[in-house]
Amino acid sequence: MVRFWLPKKWDGTADVVIVGYGGAGAPAAIACHDKGAKALVLEKAPFGGGNACCAGGGSALPSDVNKGIEYFRALTAGTVEEDLIRTLAESTHDLPHWIEELGGKVEYRDVEPMYPSFPGADAIKCFMYIARTPEQIKQGYYKTYGKDLFAFFDSQVKKRRIEVLYETPGKRLEQDPETKEIKGVVAEAAGREIFIKAKKGVILACGGFENNKEMLVNFLPFSWELPIYPLGTPYNTGDGITMASEVGAKLWHMAGLEFGNFAPRAPSEKYGVALRLLRKMPKGSALIYINKYGKRFMNEIGPKTVGTLSHCKELFKVQHFDAERGEFPNIPFYMVFDETFRLKGKMVEERSNWWHVQNMYQWSEDNSAEVEAGWFEKADTIEALAGKINVPPEALVETIHAYNKRCAQNEDEFGRGKDWLTPIKTPPFYASELCEPLINTQGGPKHNAKSQVLDWNDKPIPRLYAAGELGSVYFPYYQASCNLPEAMAFGKIAGEQAASLEPWE
Fold it and tell me: Which of 49, 207, 312, 412 has a CA between 20 and 30 Å from the CA of residue 488?
């Protein structure tokens, strides 16, 4: 039978085509190969890793499967089917064994659950994968950062001689209009379309939409006023969402996202990715965050249950909308600090950030180069500083005075810890407009326990799979260090499932 909708010529062929080479795509390729199928990986960037390279490297997994099911059920608040929750708990629980089978090392550390009141929270532990590439073995060191974990998976992919085509983004899927089967991928290479035949299936593992402004506005609440920059890879522009939507996939968890505290806006605009501040400020930090009216509006250090502003819902206070005034009173917002804080050391988080992993910039030890670059305003008085950032001088003076008084009383109206109640009193004074670093989005095509992408009737789209943050299980709550093991676990499942299919031709 002649299929007029198929390309006249395939430019390449594999059993399974994987779109995206990161924390889900690499495990998918390994699992696919080890099941006896030929895998081919398409990667948009000139190199692999994606957001996995910017992860802390830890993986929060359940030490007890049944308690893990309880905790994941609470985190997902009824939005995820029970069999998928069970698979999540079982597959992440078993991940360390797979890592060790591949030749990696595993270290176990305790982790504080972000939601200790949720059932099963006491079973959540942090398993740190200590990756071992041949280079790391020669140098005799171990690390737990995401980039080192990906280097381990990358070495496994190279060992298996799995082909990875870089700078080759997937653009759309070839689908049988009658059976709805996915037959292949249309990609772009060197400015032209190429057609890759997938004899068994396609796995979408190409991340979220952190760097797609239109999707951010359409899917996320209050994001049209908020300056947002990706903390991880700028190559995540929602390509998988577009590709899956075009073949009838149901989308879910589109409003799910994880912010990563704050970042100075000027350097983030310059480099196109967020250069975020320290996740937890050092004790004795003489700084506050203010809104455009010169007023504080939140605890700058973070709630006690989290100990940091990263992955913290406290950040949504920036996005408070005043319906009576028809405005976001806390946008734009600024950090204000004095000379003692500038001299405390680098104010930015270097690990787990794209700009640092990719060596885009070297931050100075005392923050002086960044002041000279104009990324921070500087003045000898609070009044003069207020004029430079266009906030009411009298309001900022009053705010600083009230904050300093609270420091003397060791009691803060926003619940800031006593060790961080340090007055702002040593000139010169500094300020910078802030933006929100976006760690990742969670939304995308819905998938089942076998990683099969589902249509709007919750039926699998034949030969199509998804894994990683593209359609993550986690919504509306998120436990830090859970996305990475989810990506690895469902990447492995997707690879095994796709490899087990009979070729369509």
Answer: 312
